[in-house]
């Protein structure tokens, strides 16, 4: 007899607006507190103290425009945020400061979240949708120099880039980008050559979110349909369809694979968070707490597996925190 | 009485005379209460006694025959006993034949079912008498089928004749009705038409039951008539008459069959329901993967609650209109219909902008999928629109009532919606605002969808009861919280347009002609609107118009219409202030009083007579009230 699904461990309230993005920073040693960053539709970034479960600070850097991406760069004192004011802001939060040290004007009015990759000590690559419709621009941070611009060939009709993932097989190898587009295809880009290496049409509808497992070179993407698409990369760096998994209700906003590659979580338009086993896509749980679309899911980076958490942010202004499948 | 066992020629005519005289004086029970059991015993096996009994009855003078026969019919314990006692009296004696086959069946209707059973059973028990049975059946059906009988005879008589027909049917054999099958069929078809045309549901049901029974008896080898109607005690009793203890009758055990069908359907439905509920996360079939499966460590949780999210209804009224006018998606359509009423009530400003459009849409809305309670949902939405924006929507609805090309259902819908909205507007909105707990309203609430006229009769009766003076004092009624009567400003808009055009026939709608059902409903609606208009400014004008309307229709042939007219008078007497009545409408009131007196004495319908009497009492009370209170 299967157990009923667990309840959230706790719920964070106080954003007063739909939550679009979440990012944990819990890897620090004592006396560092575990932190969760959340970006909301009202332009604020809330820094949640997971010990007290309260907001430590609220950062206002996007002029009341929705923040739809937050990432840390190395530590919890270096924050990157992306908002609908067409800006990507870099923050310095050390020692209680709340200042924007730098910003990038993307001139892009879309919703595509940028992707960060650390290539060297204090050198980052950032992929972001740029001004022109189908293009993705790669910048180096913190210098903000353009590395390359990835333009699809004429007639490809990919549409807007919807989601990006920068990765490299190991430190030092060439960085690659997986981009999901409006037409439902996922494209693998080689950054050094600036060319597309492979393209796979995974969905009939725009790709809403994707995530990739480096070790197994297997990825998963979700769109506005009722299907999740799992694909893999073979030795020739070609994308191949692996299988699909049908869903009960259509619409996925976000997918994320847990760092230990055991499970993955999807954020659904039907207000539910679904947990699957990554190996075989075995459905494990359906977490039904939110009362509106879940916009984002994120796994924490706790050093102790037993402390690992899953966070989900929703349009109903709540962030639910779950502790699920935490046995090593 | 004990007889001497003389020869067969002993004269019993003296006894017959005595018997006859006693019976005609009304002493049947006492006399026959003793005589019949005795005779029953004696005639059980003794032919001589049987012959003596027959002779006894044959010698009863004609003028007393009816009383005697009625007595026997009432006291005989069964048809077989009656057969022994009467013998072939019905065949030999003209007067007896007349009484048994005509008078008791067609001209009287106060006898119990047992009497009918006795009589018809008696006719069926001897081959000499059976032709009489067939003849009786034919005549009964003819009477049952005549439209004037259906319209003018009291329901009790119609019930009586129907019972007689059913009992006859249970006795006749197929061979006997072979010859007259066609006539029976014709009578039945005509009869069904008249019965279904009637406004009273009871008559309609009688028609349906009898027609079904006749059809099943006549058309044994073809499709039979089958109607749908409400089963209640009366229906069950009628159907039980078709079953006789003699085995030669076909028993249409419809209620039992239906029950068995339902019972059979239920288990299968619950069975399939259970299947869909089973938890489905069975591990998908293993592919040819030889990898060690570390996923097995992870135990799934219960996911049986994970079902498809149902389509949400639109959140804006204009979206609703779009969905209802053109959308192909049936799920969305269903969700919209269910959500419509609450949307209208929550967004009164938005509703006012599109009120007439919504009203038009709802009036023409047909059921697209099988939603539960569609009619009620539509009606509630219509009421919500009408109460939110009363004047324009009332203007629209009343104008459509008299327009071409609407079905009866739609016209009656309009009337029902007007009544429900009027009730809502005229009642103080006490929900959520009462600070002290008050007992629920003592009046009877009209539920949407119910048969309005019956409930309104009860409400009017309650009002009348509250106005009649009682000698014993009852409990003081709790004071209800009061609020402004919103019906005041719009009562006229509801009422006057409805009354305006009733005498103008259109090609598809003729209130004074065929569509008397709608006329009946219209009249009842006007009575309710009048009742609700108490204390409004327009009430006197409404009262006058209503009284004139009633006056022109007072001789209408349909009793449902007449009942409605009398309710109108009641409402008017209760709503219009007494001073206005007696000052402005004295002449009309006097005329009405005369008419009411006539109705009390001469109207064939019991309900009409009762209503007329109530109205006369109300008028009396009015006069007394004004005389008591000075100035």
UniProtKB/TrEMBL annotation, chain A:
SUPFAM superfamilies xref list: WD40 repeat-like
Pfam families, per the entry: WD40
Residues annotated as transmembrane: none
Placement of WD repeats on the sequence: 200-241, 287-328
Keyword terms of this UniProt record: Repeat, WD repeat
Entries under Gene3D superfamilies matching the protein: YVTN repeat-like/Quinoprotein amine dehydrogenase (2.130.10.10)
Protein name per its UniProtKB record: GNB1L protein
Organism of derivation: Tricholaema leucomelas
Taxonomic path: Eukaryota, Metazoa, Chordata, Craniata, Vertebrata
Gene name for this UniProt entry: Gnb1l
Automatic annotation (TrEMBL), chain B:
Residue span(s) of domain TELO2 ARM repeat: 131-224
Subcellular location per the Swiss-Prot or TrEMBL entry: Cytoplasm; Membrane; Nucleus
Cellular component terms (Gene Ontology): cytosol; membrane; nucleus
Predominant location category: cytoplasm
Region: Disordered, residue numbers: 253-299
Keywords carried by this UniProt record: Cytoplasm, Membrane, Nucleus
Record PANTHER family: TELOMERE LENGTH REGULATION PROTEIN TEL2 FAMILY MEMBER (PTHR15830), TELOMERE LENGTH REGULATION PROTEIN TEL2 HOMOLOG (PTHR15830:SF10)
UniProt name for this protein: Telomere length regulation protein TEL2 homolog
The gene coding this protein: Telo2
């Amino acid at each position: 007899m299967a157990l009923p699904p667990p309840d959230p461990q706790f719920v964070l309230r106080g954003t007063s607006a739909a939550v679009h993005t979440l990012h944990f920073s819990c890897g620090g040693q004592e006396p560092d507190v575990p932190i969760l960053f959340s970006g909301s539709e009202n332009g604020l970034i809330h820094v949640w103290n997971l010990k007290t479960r309260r907001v430590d600070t609220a950062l206002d850097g996007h002029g009341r425009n929705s923040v739809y991406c937050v990432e840390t760069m190395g530590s919890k004192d270096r924050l990157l945020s992306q908002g609908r004011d067409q800006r990507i802001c870099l923050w310095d939060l050390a020692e209680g400061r709340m200042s924007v040290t730098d910003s990038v004007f993307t001139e892009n009015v879309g919703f595509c979240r940028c992707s960060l990759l650390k290539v060297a000590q204090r050198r980052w690559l950032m992929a972001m949708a740029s001004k022109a419709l189908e293009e993705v621009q790669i910048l180096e941070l913190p210098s903000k120099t353009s590395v390359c611009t990835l333009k699809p060939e004429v007639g490809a009709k990919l549409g807007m880039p919807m989601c990006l993932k920068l990765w490299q097989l190991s430190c030092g190898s060439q960085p690659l980008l997986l981009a999901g587009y409006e037409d439902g295809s996922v494209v693998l880009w080689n950054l050094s050559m600036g060319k597309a290496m492979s393209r796979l049409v995974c969905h009939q509808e725009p790709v809403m979110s994707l995530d990739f497992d480096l070790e197994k070179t297997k990825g998963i993407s979700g769109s506005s349909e009722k299907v999740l698409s799992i694909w893999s990369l073979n030795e020739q760096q070609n994308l191949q369809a692996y299988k699909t998994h049908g869903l009960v209700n259509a619409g996925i906003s976000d997918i994320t694979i847990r760092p230990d590659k055991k499970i993955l979580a999807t954020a659904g338009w039907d207000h539910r968070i679904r947990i699957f086993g990554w190996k075989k896509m075995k459905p494990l749980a359906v977490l039904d707490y939110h009362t509106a679309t879940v916009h984002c899911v994120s796994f924490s980076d706790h050093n102790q597996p037993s402390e690992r958490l899953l966070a989900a942010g929703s349009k109903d202004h709540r962030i639910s925190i779950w502790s699920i499948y935490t046995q090593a | 009485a004990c007889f001497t066992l003389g020869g067969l020629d002993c004269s019993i005519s003296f006894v017959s005379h005595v018997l006859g005289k006693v019976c005609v004086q009304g002493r049947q029970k006492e006399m026959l209460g003793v005589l019949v059991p005795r005779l029953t015993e004696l005639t059980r096996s003794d032919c001589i006694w049987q012959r003596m009994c027959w002779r006894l009855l044959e010698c009863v003078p004609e003028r007393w025959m009816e009383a005697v026969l009625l007595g026997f019919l009432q006291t005989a314990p069964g048809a077989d006993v009656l057969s022994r006692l009467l013998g072939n009296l019905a065949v030999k004696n003209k007067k007896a034949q007349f009484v048994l086959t005509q008078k008791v069946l067609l001209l009287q209707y106060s006898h119990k079912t047992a009497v009918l059973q006795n009589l018809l059973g008696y006719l069926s028990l001897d081959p000499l008498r059976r032709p009489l049975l067939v003849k009786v059946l034919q005549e009964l059906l003819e009477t049952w089928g005549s439209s004037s009988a259906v319209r003018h005879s009291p329901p009790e008589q119609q019930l009586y004749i129907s019972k007689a027909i059913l009992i006859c049917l249970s006795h006749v054999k197929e061979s006997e009705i072979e010859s007259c099958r066609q006539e029976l069929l014709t009578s039945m078809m005509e009869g069904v038409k008249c019965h279904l045309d009637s406004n009273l549901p009871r008559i309609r049901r009688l028609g349906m039951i009898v027609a079904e029974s006749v059809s099943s008896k006549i058309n044994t080898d073809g499709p039979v008539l089958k109607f749908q109607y409400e089963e209640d005690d009366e229906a069950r009793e009628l159907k039980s008459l078709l079953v006789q203890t003699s085995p030669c009758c076909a028993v249409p055990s419809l209620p039992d069959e239906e029950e068995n069908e339902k019972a059979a359907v239920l288990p299968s439905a619950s069975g399939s329901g259970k299947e869909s509920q089973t938890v489905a996360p069975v591990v998908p079939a293993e592919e040819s993967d030889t990898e060690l499966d570390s996923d097995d460590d992870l135990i799934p949780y219960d996911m049986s609650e994970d079902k498809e999210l149902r389509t949400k209804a639109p959140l804006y009224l204009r979206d609703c209109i779009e969905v209802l006018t053109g959308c192909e998606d049936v799920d969305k359509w269903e969700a919209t219909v269910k959500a419509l009423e609450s949307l209208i009530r929550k967004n009164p400003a938005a509703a006012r902008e599109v009120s007439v459009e919504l009203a038009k849409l709802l009036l023409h809305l047909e059921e697209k999928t099988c939603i539960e309670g569609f009619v009620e949902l539509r009606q509630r939405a219509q009421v919500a629109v009408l109460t939110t924006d009363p004047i324009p929507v009332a203007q629209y609805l009343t104008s459509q009532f008299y327009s071409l090309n609407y079905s009866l259902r739609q016209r009656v819908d309009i009337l029902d919606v007007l009544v429900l909205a009027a009730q809502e507007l005229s009642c103080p909105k006490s929900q959520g605002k009462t600070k002290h707990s008050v007992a629920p309203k003592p009046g009877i609430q009209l539920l949407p969808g119910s048969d309005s006229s019956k409930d309104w009769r009860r409400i009017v009766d309650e009002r009348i009861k509250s106005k009649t003076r009682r000698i014993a004092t009852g409990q003081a009624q709790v004071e209800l919280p009061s609020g402004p009567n919103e019906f005041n400003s719009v009562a006229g808009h509801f009422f006057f347009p409805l009354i305006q055009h009733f005498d103008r026939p259109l090609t598809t709608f003729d209130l004074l002609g065929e569509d008397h059902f709608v006329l009946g409903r219209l009249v009842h609606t006007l009575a309710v609107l009048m009742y609700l208009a108490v204390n409004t400014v327009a009430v006197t004008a409404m009262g006058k118009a209503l009284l004139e309307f009633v006056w022109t229709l007072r001789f209408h042939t349909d009793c449902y219409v007449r009942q409605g007219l009398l309710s109108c008078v009641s409402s008017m007497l209760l709503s219009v202030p007494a001073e206005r009545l007696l000052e402005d409408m004295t002449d009309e009131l006097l005329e009405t009083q005369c008419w009411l007196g006539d109705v009390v004495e001469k109207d064939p319908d019991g309900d009409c007579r009762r209503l007329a009497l109530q109205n006369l009492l109300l008028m009396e009370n009015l006069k007394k009230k004004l005389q008591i209170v000075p100035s």
